[in-house]
Amino acid sequence: MAVPKRKHSNSRTGKRRSHHGLKPKELQSCPKCATPQPSHVICPNCGHYMGRTMVETEE
């Protein structure tokens, strides 16, 4: 079985993990009510998606 001969340094480990950080969610504004929301999701405020009403909301 293969075993490492030397320990990897902290900087080398950190370089490898540099792309593991969390990125913030990309939000877009709803074209009808301008509420920020993720793309390809029905708007939780007005219930619109792709220019159509998908969910009836009480206003």
UniProtKB/TrEMBL annotation:
SUPFAM superfamilies noted in UniProt: Zn-binding ribosomal proteins (SSF57829)
MF annotations from Gene Ontology: structural constituent of ribosome
Alphabetized InterPro entries for the sequence: Ribosomal_bL32, Ribosomal_bL32_bact, Ribosomal_zn-bd
Iron in keyword set: no
Designated name of the protein: Large ribosomal subunit protein bL32
Family under the similarity heading: Belongs to the bacterial ribosomal protein bL32 family.
Species of provenance: Lacipirellula limnantheis
Swiss-Prot/TrEMBL keywords: Ribonucleoprotein, Ribosomal protein
